[in-house]
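ok new one. same drill as before - structure tokens go in, u give me an amino acid for every spot. 124 of them this time. try not to just spam alanines like last time pls lmao
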């Protein structure tokens, strides 16, 4: 199982960015999928996830209404669309997947499989 994240970079506050995470070795539709982030000196924060059972999604309060998680089974890829970003969104973003853990904010950083991380820097 491998996850390959991409799409990070430098973006101005108020702008948009889309992160991608290509999966191999498993089918994304069979796993709980999620994104978590870690800013310098801070604990990991579950940003968003999708349940493998009912398709329900979760968003941290800090990103609700601005970020959107999605997946494409045909491409075996998941995405995180980030809109109206702010400097507080600056962090390394990790995609993650798990076959048994639920879609809950506090669980995402504990998912068994994670990508290598992609850095998002938001300038003010």
């Amino acid at each position: 199982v491998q996850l390959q994240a991409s799409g990070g970079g430098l973006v101005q506050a108020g702008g948009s960015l889309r992160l991608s995470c290509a999966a191999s070795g498993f089918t994304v539709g069979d796993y709980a999928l999620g994104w978590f982030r870690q800013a310098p000196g801070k604990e990991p924060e579950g940003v968003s996830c999708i349940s493998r059972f009912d398709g329900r999604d979760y968003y941290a309060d800090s990103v609700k209404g601005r970020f959107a998680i999605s997946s494409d089974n045909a491409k075996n890829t998941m995405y995180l669309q980030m809109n109206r970003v702010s400097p507080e969104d600056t962090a390394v973003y990790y995609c993650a997947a798990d076959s048994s853990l639920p879609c809950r904010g506090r669980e995402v950083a504990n998912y068994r499989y994670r990508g290598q991380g992609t850095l998002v820097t938001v300038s003010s």
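Residues 3 and 74 are 16 Å apart (CA to CA). and btw The chain has a mean pLDDT of 95.
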